[in-house]
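User: Quick sanity check before I run a bigger batch. Here is a single chain. Can you write out its predicted 3D structure?
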Amino acid sequence: MAAPTLIVGLGGIGSQITAILSDMVKDEKIKERIRFVVFDTDANDLDRIKRKDPFIRTVQTSTNMTVGDYLHLDEHTRDNSLSP
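Assistant: Done. Predicted structure follows.
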């Protein structure tokens, strides 16, 4: 019996590569021994991956806040780090 395998995709490109690898595995018995997990900040990309391939587990690594939302909360960074 083959050992279980975990394939992890990090970020946009890593997630895309993991989705391609998962798509390449056609045999259901083999796919049951392989786990695919992707970590990304983009909820839209994660939703697309999840809808296309239910074998892939998705993890969103941030909130749905935008960069502007974070800068609004952190006046020091906004005023001191991004000013010319």
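Helices lie at 11-24, 28-33, 43-52, 67-73, 75-81.

User: Great, the batch can go ahead then.
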